[in-house]
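Translate structure to sequence.
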């Protein structure tokens, strides 16, 4: 599965868009829906200040986090 990478393009460095493999600048809402539909089993969503964001599932590697 392609890695999800946050672009930190929102206010305060929030991720409003993500790159997913060859797919560039995918809106946060689309990524959240895909994760919740099970299309990205290596990721989950979390809610902060009423908005959902993508986050990689925990593992010992820092290099594959959404905001690497």
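Result:
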């Amino acid at each position: 599965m392609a890695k999800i990478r946050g672009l930190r393009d929102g206010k305060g460095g929030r991720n409003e868009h993500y790159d997913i493999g060859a797919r560039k600048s995918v809106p946060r809402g689309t990524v959240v829906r895909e994760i919740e539909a099970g299309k990205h089993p290596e990721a989950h969503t979390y809610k902060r200040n009423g908005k959902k964001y993508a986050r990689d599932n925990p593992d010992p590697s820092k290099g594959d986090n959404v905001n690497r």
